[in-house]
Amino acid sequence: MLHGPSLGIGAGIAAVSIFAAFFAFNMIDTQEVELTPADIPESNEEITMEVFTANGSPILGDPNAPVLMVEFGDYQCFFCNKFFHDTEDDILKNYVETGKVKIIFKDFTIIGPDSVNAAHGAHCANEQGKFWQYHDILYNNWDGENNGWAGSENLLNFATQIELDIDQWSECMLDAKYQQKIISSNSDAKSLGLTGTPAFFVIGPDAKVTKIGGAQPYDVFQRIFDTELAK
């Protein structure tokens, strides 16, 4: 399930306006699949749009889509992989390809070093316009946690399979060019009170934010999207 050019991948997150604002967070009343996500911590600090949009992937979908979904994930995470295979394709077909929803993926690398290296591989692939292709090939080759499937040799093989310029990609990896970006994304996740993956935030046209914890079934996302789109 590779995300092709027809999805209109945005070149970056610039199309999403960044502004300081408080948001109302509503928990979805469903049974959590992985971990019961923490409530947004009480704080005197503002939660801004930058927490959701900075340090992440390029936009997948129409940058002008009225609804934004932000996923915090770990490429070694079982339930992230489950969401990718069981639910994401229907979201892409019914909401992203139709221009209703855009997606940003952010790293929350909580499982192990290979999680960080895999995330770094995707960001290095983004230099050649192939973040989402690398994202997909990682999940299409998922094989557990901390068992080597996302080790350096396989990461290189994935880069070869999606026809990256290997010299450029390898130099990016060796330089750890996106280390700070991944660290900052993890900090964003923690500032939002996350303790597990996947976790999703759906931001509607009125800037209302709805939090979804775990690999929930498609109908949970469908209900939230439709509610936001009806505004």
List keywords for this structure.
12% strand, 8 helices, five-stranded mixed sheet, alpha/beta, 5 strands
Account of the protein in words:
This protein is an alpha/beta fold and 231 residues long. The protein is built from eight helices and five strands. It has a five-stranded mixed beta sheet with strand order 1-5-4-2-3. A hairpin with a 5-residue loop joins strand 4 (199-203) and strand 5. Helix 3 runs antiparallel to helix 4 (131-140) and helix 3 (113-126) crosses helix 6 (166-174). It starts with 24 loop residues before the first strand and ends with a helix. Mean pLDDT is 85; it is low at 4-44.
Write the layout of secondary structure elements.
Elements: E1 25-27, H1 49-53, E2 67-73, H2 78-96, E3 101-107, H3 113-126, H4 131-140, H5 152-161, H6 166-174, H7 179-191, E4 199-203, E5 209-213, H8 218-229
Parallel strand pairs: 1-5, 2-3
Antiparallel strand pairs: 2-4, 4-5
